[in-house]
TrEMBL record, chain A:
InterPro entries: ABC_transp_permease, LivM-like. It comes from the Bacteria. It is a multi-pass membrane protein. This is Branched-chain amino acid ABC transporter permease. Residues 328-355 are annotated as: Disordered. It comes from Rhodoplanes tepidamans (Rhodoplanes cryptolactis). Residues 342-355 have a biased composition (Low complexity). Keywords: Cell membrane, Membrane, Transmembrane, Transmembrane helix.
From TrEMBL, chain B:
Coiled coil: none annotated. The keyword Nucleotide-binding does not apply. The chain crosses the membrane at residues 12-32, 52-77, 139-159, 191-214, 226-250, 262-284. InterPro entries: ABC_transp_permease (IPR001851), BCAA_transport_permease (IPR052157). Belongs to the binding-protein-dependent transport system permease family. LivHM subfamily. It is found in: Cell membrane. It is a multi-pass membrane protein. This is Branched-chain amino acid ABC transporter permease. Keywords: Amino-acid transport, Cell membrane, Membrane, Transmembrane, Transmembrane helix, Transport. The keyword Transport applies. The lineage of its organism: Bacteria, Pseudomonadati, Pseudomonadota, Alphaproteobacteria, Hyphomicrobiales.
Amino acid sequence: MSRAVTLAWVVFLFTLPLWMDNLYFLHVLIMAGIFIVAAMSLNLLLGYTGQLSLGHVAFFGIGAYVSSLCSLGFEIHVFDVPVGLAPKPVWLSMIVAVVFAGLCGWMIGKISFKVRGAYFVIVSVSFAEVTRLVALNWLELTQGPMALNNIPFLKLWLPGIGDIDVLGKMPNYYLVLVVAVVTYVIIRRLVHSRAGRAMIALRENEPLATSVGIDVTRFLVLATVVSAALAGLAGAVYAQYVRIVDPDVFLFIYTVTMVIMVVTGGKGTLAGPIVGGLIFGILPELLRGFEVQPEIQWVVYGVLMILIVYFLPEGIVPAVRDGWRRVGGRSGAPPAQPAPATPAGATPATAEASP
Amino acid sequence: MDQLLQHALNAMILGGTYALLGIGLTLIFGIMRVVNFTHGELYAFGAYMMYMWVMLIGANFVVSIALAVALGVLLGAGIEILLLRRLRGADIDTTMLVMIGAWIAMQNTEQLVWSGVAKSIDSPFPSAPLVMGGVSVSWTRLFVFAVAVMLIAGTWVLIQKTRLGKAMRATFQDREAAALMGVRIDRVHTATFAIGSGLAAAAGALLGPVFVVYPTIGDLASLKAFAIVILGGLGSIPGATIGGFILAFMEELGAGYVSSGYRDAMGFLLIIVILLVKPTGLFARKERIG
């Protein structure tokens, strides 16, 4: 995608609520946007370092809970000593949530990157399950299944506009859009930096990366921290939008949704999670029009995931890009897309899987 | 003291079925290098087949267990031939994604077929428990334990004493060398996945009558199997056996002395502690990195 196309997209997305007044569709886009942010954060790990975080929803849920608890305030008793927190402003709560989620990512990375691969997958799954059980059982703090209600919404002050209540569809749409763009820029900069090249190097060939002096574990932990913090940000945005958080935010199926988004769109590409996120964020709503049972929807997801691994192992974005190049679509536009985003042979490991 | 004994006894009995789950998963990982996310669904499948034979068709209890295991073996062989055979040589993440897809599809198919309502399975054993001193145990649980121990022993004999077992061990050590010696790798893989699936189905068929059966029981079963396998070292059968019992003890003690809400969190805490202290598991012969 050249810079002009990107710009056209941004303009299109920023003006969308001005000419589209279907509130329900706006809601669908907001939820898709939140999931896209989460999927982009997952892509940093899965696509660029090759580590599958199958408990990614834990960071999302932690972001949602920490932000909600800070903005609501809480009081718990540790050995009968009351420990409390007065309600804090929402923007501060969201920052705390991001930092906390990042810390959890650091912890998980430190533990599991001693041995990686399958171990990291299982540790991340386990971590998500533990956080879900804590949210369900620590009634004093989280209200358990009764959920946290009436979570305050974000209040912002913008130069030239003044105070804004981020309440309702339109302000939230813009909030999600801004967060998504910021996330995209952070990940893009990281991936194109020295750290990003180190991550890709270790995904492609870890022994070689080590031999040229790349501290593999350090970069893996760094990627996990950034990824977890961004997922936490998505969770915090989610909490202040829906304004109710219950332990179901930790459901495994949300992690699966993120994984499917990344794999379908194209792991290891910047645009992949966005394309996948739009498809799987909007598809369920279309299916709902046909009154499809949710179980059938999930069966379709599962089968789709298998088919994509077999027939489109690199995902949609690389496939489309290759097709574009083949028909000579590059001749007109300058080659604005730099190679580092998808170095030659990105995800070669999956490429060889095609039958 | 009696309370502690009671917990220990419960753990022994639960541990047998956990060990079955763990052995199945560790076999599949060790020989095929596949992180099998459908394992829990095979467990659920076994439990639902048990429900079907006992409650809907009215077959004999013991015969039903055998049928459930046989169907689990068949389903496992089908999954291997249909989904995994063409991915031989693919990297571990690719097969993992396929298995996750299969897991989601299977679980929701179960939900469609059996509905979300929990089902209970009647057991033919007397409901009055066996009381010994201060501890008591139900006859159903004793039976479950006996069958689990028999199945563990049977698997052990299969792997150590039969020709197939020898081929499996050879494949485990070095796939290429085994193929050069005339071992048919495709057959070994299908057999491994079928046996592993059969063991998971057996665990489901055995625990189905002890607890209740509902579509998402497979999730926790998968996660517990992973915990057991990490505990014992990926690919180690004795490790998985002992790991199954250790996890059961942790859960019983956690539920008894901490809080029953955190019972299922014990396995995961165990994983984290093990990875901190001895990342390769307690019984792995050499370091295995997925």
